[in-house]
């Protein structure tokens, strides 16, 4: 299947209830906040981690993952992948199917070297530049869905190259004002190979919104396909509640809405889709300090619905709209 044929922008909203959506290690693992606006923040990295972990949980190969129980950088990961090629004849056959010349060149290097480390070093030799490029292209376009989505960078000899991901996601922020809870309970905070003790910081309620894009031009480089995007839509919806931890429990998706553009229209044609959503406390709640659940908020999609209705159809910007909603959310798109 070919790469995606249309640019698109998407809006993703999920709720966080009595938990810590994204702790800041520089602030005692307190929830990330913009205190000027009293809004809760979540990095794109945190959201991508949910997505990658869900892929792995369901048997997908993920590039940004652990190897042999330890964290590795992209360069080390590349070495692990090449080493797996050496020990798995089926993987070799799949990588080089229809490319006998490349397979012969690869097998020639393997037969001359005594160990895997020697083979990997030989692959970085300038004379093997074509083979390097071939293997890297396979790794990007056929093996790791997270590279096809989010890109990656390599810097190992002849493998040096950076791939910009077709799918880019902004930091998320809460549509409502958020007030952190400071607990007296003490927890262990794990960070890489060390751990510290700290307080258990959480928020009462946060309705978090992300804006992202999928770019058809960049997709040609990583090989992002329509099937990949279909899987992405499913995973971004299912990943967060499927991977609960003590601090991340009680997080649930509320809305995924993707505007697919007609030819000739670029990402961001309407700006950040979050700007078309209005969120206020309901009557009787008084202010945001008392918000404890979704039903305490008026979340109004009227302006977003108007934007879509006025710009959808032949000769207009929007080709189609893909929507998934949770119970209690209604949007006419």
Compose a concise summary of this entry.
With 333 residues, the chain is an alpha+beta fold.
Description of the structure:
There is one protein chain. With 333 residues, the protein is α+β, with helices and mostly antiparallel strands. It has 2 domains: 8-59 and 168-325, no CATH class; 74-143, no CATH class. It is built from 10 helices and 15 strands. It has helices at 44-57, 74-87, 89-95, 100-112, 116-123, 129-143, 145-150, 216-222, 226-242, 302-311, and strands at 8-19, 23-24, 30-31, 33-34, 39-42, 151-154, 161-164, 167-169, 172-174, 180-191, 194-214, 251-261, 278-281, 297-300, 318-325. Strands 1, 4, 5, 8, 9, 10, 11, 12 and 15 form a 9-stranded antiparallel β-sheet that branches. A hairpin with a 2-residue loop joins strand 10 and strand 11. It starts with 7 loop residues before the first strand and ends in an 8-residue tail after the last strand. The model has no long low-confidence stretch (mean pLDDT 89).
Can you write the helix and strand succession as a string? EEEEEHHHHHHHEEEEEEHHEEEHE
- Shape descriptor reads globular
Q: Helix proportion of residues, in percent?
A: 25-40%
**End-to-end Cα distance:** 28 Å
Give the percentage of residues in beta strands.
25-35%
Low-confidence stretches: none
Mean pLDDT: 89
Q: Helix segment count?
A: 10
Q: Which structural class matches the secondary elements?
A: alpha+beta
Kindly give the count of domains. Answer: 2
Biggest sheet, open or closed, and with what strands and sense? 9 strands, antiparallel
Number of strands: 15
What is the radius of gyration? 23 Å
């Amino acid at each position: 299947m070919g790469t995606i044929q249309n640019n698109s922008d998407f809006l993703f909203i999920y709720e966080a209830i009595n938990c810590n959506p994204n702790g800041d290690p520089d602030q005692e693992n307190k929830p990330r906040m913009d205190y000027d606006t009293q809004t809760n923040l979540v990095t794109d990295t945190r959201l991508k981690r949910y997505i990658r972990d869900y892929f792995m949980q369901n048997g997908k190969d993920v590039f940004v993952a652990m190897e042999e129980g330890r964290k590795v950088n992209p360069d080390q990961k590349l070495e692990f992948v090449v080493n797996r090629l050496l020990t798995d004849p089926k993987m070799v056959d799949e990588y080089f199917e229809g490319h006998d010349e490349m397979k012969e060149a690869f097998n020639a290097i393997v037969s001359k070297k005594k160990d895997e480390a020697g083979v990997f070093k030989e692959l970085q030799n300038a004379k093997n530049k074509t083979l390097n490029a071939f293997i890297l292209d396979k790794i990007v376009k056929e093996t790791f869905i997270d590279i096809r989505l989010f890109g990656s960078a390599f810097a190992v000899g002849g493998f040096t190259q950076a791939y910009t991901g077709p799918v880019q996601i902004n930091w998320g922020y809460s549509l409502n004002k958020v007030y952190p809870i400071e607990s007296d309970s003490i927890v262990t905070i794990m960070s890489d190979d060390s751990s510290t003790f700290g307080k258990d910081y959480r928020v009462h309620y946060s309705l978090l919104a992300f804006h992202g894009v999928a770019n058809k031009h960049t997709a040609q480089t990583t090989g992002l396909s329509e099937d990949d995007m279909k899987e992405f839509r499913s995973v971004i919806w299912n990943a967060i509640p499927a991977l609960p931890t003590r601090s991340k429990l009680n997080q649930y998706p509320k809305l995924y809405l993707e505007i697919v553009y007609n030819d000739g229209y670029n990402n961001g044609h309407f700006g950040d889709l979050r700007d078309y959503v209005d969120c206020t406390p309901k009557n009787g709640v008084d202010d945001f300090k008392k918000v404890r659940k979704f039903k305490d908020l008026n979340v109004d999609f009227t302006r977003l619905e108007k934007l879509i209705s006025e710009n959808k159809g032949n000769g207009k910007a929007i080709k189609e709209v893909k929507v998934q909603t949770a119970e209690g959310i209604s949007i006419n798109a």
